[in-house]
Design brief:
Blueprint (H helix, E strand, L loop, with lengths): L5 H12 L3 H23 L2 H17 L10 H19 L6 H7 L11 H17 L4 H12 L4 H8 L3 H21 L1 H12 L1
Helix pairs in contact: 1-2, 2-3, 2-4, 2-7, 3-4, 4-8, 6-9, 6-10, 7-9, 8-9
């Protein structure tokens, strides 16, 4: 489902608050997949990402009347999910299940086996996962919001309650750290170079 415009989102929220089931369903459909993808990358565990996504929407629906319309609905949903994720992290240390994370990104195996292109892309995803794991939790979150979720710097700053310049600094340092990690190893570096050159 394409991203909702602000007026469309506001209209759905008003309808959902009045108990309109189809509006509630539309709000969930519009945000469920991006939230799940984000939480999967943050937690590295599909079951945790699924639980957090479901619980986040349960809390959203219970507290819809408390939503502040000055902010984007997605920011509110992600904030609730982030709190749930922090609670989940305290219960167990996240461990990446790379096969599941890769599959979630749409890597399809052809009937005759994995093509060279698909294998290269899988290697790059693995390299990027490793590079992401070298970041601090805050840097990782900013990179995912900016690159995976396509949030503008201004929205990330509001979500994290920090100045835009600080977000940009974290993003710059995170990209530099990932680049250094990739370039430290010739095999990792080559796998990424192959994609850029193809």
């Amino acid at each position: 489902m394409p991203m909702l415009s602000r007026p469309e989102e506001d209209k759905l929220i008003r309808a959902a608050r009045s108990g309109d089931g189809s509006a509630i369903e539309s709000l969930i459909r519009a945000h469920q997949e991006p939230l799940y993808a984000f939480m999967l990358r943050m937690s590295g565990r599909p079951e945790t990402a699924e639980d957090i996504t479901q619980e986040a929407f349960v809390r959203v629906l219970k507290n819809l009347d408390r939503f502040d319309p000055r902010f984007r609905f997605s920011t509110w949903v992600f904030t609730i999910a982030k709190r749930l994720h922090m609670n989940a992290v305290q219960k167990h240390k996240p461990v990446y299940d790379n096969e599941t994370v890769d599959a979630r990104q749409g890597s399809d195996a052809s009937p005759g086996g994995v093509s060279a292109r698909e294998e290269t892309m899988s290697n790059v995803r693995g390299t990027l996962d490793q590079a992401m794991n070298t970041l601090s939790p805050l840097q990782k979150e900013i990179v995912l919001l900016f690159h995976q979720q396509s949030w503008p710097i201004m929205e990330i700053a509001a979500y994290l309650d920090m100045p835009e310049g600080t977000v940009k600094s974290h993003l710059f340092r995170a990209r530099r750290r990932m680049k250094e990690f990739i370039e430290e190893d010739a095999t990792r570096n080559q796998s990424v170079v192959e994609v850029w050159q193809s």
